[in-house]
Amino acid sequence: MTGLGQESADAEFERLAARYRPIFDEIAVGEAQRERDGVAPHEQLRWLIGAGFAGLRIPRELGGEQARLSTVLRLIAELAVADVNLAHVWRNHFSFVEDRLYDRRDPRSDEWLARLGRGEIVGGGWSEPGAAGTAGTISTRIARDGDDWVLDGVKYYSTGSVYARWSTVLALDPDGTEVVVLVDTGSPGVRIGDDWDGFGQRLTGSGSVAYEGVRVPSDRVFAYATRYSYQRQFYQSTLNALLVGVGRAIERDGAAALRARVRSHRNATVPTPTDDPELLEVLGSVSAAVYAAQTAFERSLVLTDALIERAGAADAGDDAGLGHASVQAVAQTQLVATTAVLDAATRVFDALGASGTSHRLGLDRHWRNARTLASHNPRVYVARLLGDALVNGRDLTA
C-alpha cells in the first residue's frame, strides 16, 4: 500500500497537518497541568479518533487517508509538541496497522484495517518483566482449548494499553513458534495495571498487563513471520519523532519563559532579560539543536518511504542496500536527536534563573520525558553499532 501519487510528501503532510493542528493546539491547553496532576488524556484521545487520526495509514477504499508512513510520523512529532504522552500512545496502534498493510493477502487484514481506521485503538505487550538472559526472552504462551487458544503471561512496557480496545501480545505457540495474539482488553483474565513507575512518560500506560487464561479466537492469532519487514525503522523512528516533539516544546516553552522574565541577575550585562545577549545565545543554541534533530529525522523518513515503496515493487527483491541505508539513517538520527534534545532540555534553564524551576511551569517534564524516551535504546549501543558498520563494514540490519 502506498500513499504516493501526484501529491508530494510535503504537500500531503501540510494538507493533513492543517487539519490536525487546531486539534493539537487544543490538546496542548492544560497539558502541563495534566502532567502535574496525573490526569490521563482520554478525552483528548477521543478528539483525535473523531478526527480520523487512527485511519491515517488505512487505504482509501477502506475509509482511510492512505497517507505515507513519513506523514504519520511527522504528525506524531507535531502531536508530541502538544502532548508527548498522548503521541506515544499511538506507537503500537500504527505498528499493527503496518502488519495488516504488509500482509493484505491474509483475508483478515482488510476487516481489521477498516476497524482500526474507525478508531479501535491497539496497545501492545511485547517485553516481559524480570526475564532472565537477554531482552526478548518470551515466557508468554498460548495453548489450544477446543477451537480457541488460551493465553497466559505477563507483559511490561505495554504502552497505550490503558487506552486501547485491543492489545497485541507476543507469545509462543506449543511448537515454540512466535505468534502475535490480538487480545480484547475487556476479556476475562486481562488485568491492566497502570503501574508504570518511570519518572517520564507517566501518562502513556506503559506498565504491566497480565493475561491469565484468556480465551482468544483462532482468527486473532497471527504468525510473527508475516509482520512488516521495516519494523526496526518504524519503532525507532517513532521514538525519534517523540524526541523531536519534546525538543520543539522545549524551544517553545523556553522562549515563552524568557519573554516572561522581568528580573535580571546581578551579574548580567543588561537590565532586561530579553535583551541579554548571553540569555539569547542560550535560546539560539537550543533552537539550533532542535533544528538539527528535526532535520535529521525528516531526512531519515525519506529513505523509509522509499523502502516501503520498493517493498511493493515486483522486482524489489529484499532491497538489502536500501534497507541498510534506512536503518543507518534512523540510527544516526537517534544519536543526533537524543544528544540534541537532552542537551536542550538542560541548557534552557541557563536562560531562566531560579524561577525557571517553578513547579507551575513544569519545564522539568521535558527533560524527564526525553530522558525516558532515550533510555529505550541506550546511546552507547547505537553509537557502537554505527561505528562497527563504519569501520568493519558490519551490516546494521543483521
TrEMBL record:
Organism per entry: Microbacterium marinilacus
Domain Acyl-CoA oxidase/dehydrogenase middle, first and last residues per copy: 125-213
Catalytic reactions on record: dibenzothiophene + FMNH2 + O2 = dibenzothiophene 5-oxide + FMN + H2O + H(+); dibenzothiophene 5-oxide + FMNH2 + O2 = dibenzothiophene 5,5-dioxide + FMN + H2O + H(+); dibenzothiophene + 2 FMNH2 + 2 O2 = dibenzothiophene 5,5-dioxide + 2 FMN + 2 H2O + 2 H(+)
Residue ranges annotated for the Acyl-CoA dehydrogenase C-terminal domain, each copy included: 241-376
Pfam families assigned: Acyl-CoA_dh_2, Acyl-CoA_dh_M
This protein's UniProt keywords: Flavoprotein, FMN, Monooxygenase, Nucleotide-binding, Oxidoreductase
Subcellular location(s) per record: Cytoplasm
UniProt-listed Enzyme Commission number(s): 1.14.14.21
Family indicated by similarity: Belongs to the DszC flavin monooxygenase family.
UniProt enzyme class: oxidoreductase
Pathway(s) annotated for this protein in UniProt: Sulfur metabolism; dibenzothiophene degradation
Record-given protein name: Dibenzothiophene monooxygenase
Keyword Nucleotide-binding recorded: yes
Main localization of the protein described in the UniProt heading: cytoplasm
Keyword Oxidoreductase in record: yes
